[in-house]
Design goal:
This protein is mainly beta. 5% of the residues lie in helices and 32% in strands. The protein has a single domain (13-124), classed as Deoxyuridine 5'-Triphosphate Nucleotidohydrolase, Chain A (Distorted Sandwich), CATH 2.70.40.10. The strands form 4 sheets. It has a 4-stranded antiparallel beta sheet with strand order 2-11-6-8, with no helix packed on it. Strands 4-9-7 form a 3-stranded antiparallel beta sheet. The longest helix has 7 residues, at 71-77. This enzyme is involved in nucleotide metabolism: it produces dUMP, the immediate precursor of thymidine nucleotides and it decreases the intracellular concentration of dUTP so that uracil cannot be incorporated into DNA. Pathway: Pyrimidine metabolism; dUMP biosynthesis; dUMP from dCTP (dUTP route): step 2/2. It is an enzyme of class 3 (hydrolase). It catalyses: dUTP + H2O = dUMP + diphosphate + H(+).
Length: 151
């Protein structure tokens, strides 16, 4: 069996700050590219902050970038992403910024320049045209929302 990772076109990245670390995978074949903080800060218990990465990317048309939490950061330091997953549309060319939340009730969390704070996963997306209709087709679930499948 081949262990060669699937490849696609390169993902163009631009360094916006001299301390920025370009996103990269920790291991060959990982889905996520690590995003690093370009600024230092202290997150008080329960506080949130928008943290810059100092980079911009050009997500290809027909794709989207998802900014996801790092499980180790969550487990060890209680850091979550407020809007996980964050969505980066293909047309966005600004700095990638990550909205961190310290869920620890007692301890502040120090973020240093260069710390891995999140990960970027680029996925292919469908771009259907929308059309207004008078009725939607039936489904087994119907309009059942939160809790409709049980506990």
């Amino acid at each position: 069996m081949s262990t060669t990772a699937a490849t696609t076109a390169p993902l163009p990245m631009k360094r916006l700050h001299p301390d920025a670390i370009l996103p990269r995978r920790a291991y060959d074949g990982d889905a996520g590219l690590d995003l690093h903080a370009v600024e230092a800060l202290t997150l008080a218990p329960g506080a949130r902050a928008l943290v810059g990465t100092g980079i911009a990317v050009a997500i290809p048309h027909g794709h989207a970038g998802l900014v996801l939490p790092r499980s180790g950061l969550a487990a060890k330091r209680g850091i979550a992403l407020v809007n996980a997953p964050g969505l980066i549309d293909a047309g966005y060319r600004g700095e990638l910024r990550v909205l961190l939340l310290n869920t620890d009730r007692d301890e502040p969390c120090e973020i240093a320049v260069g710390d891995r704070i999140a990960q970027l996963v680029v996925i292919r997306v469908e771009l259907p045209q929308t059309v207004e209709v008078d009725e939607l087709p039936d489904s087994e679930r119907g309009s059942g929302g939160f809790g409709s499948s049980g506990a």
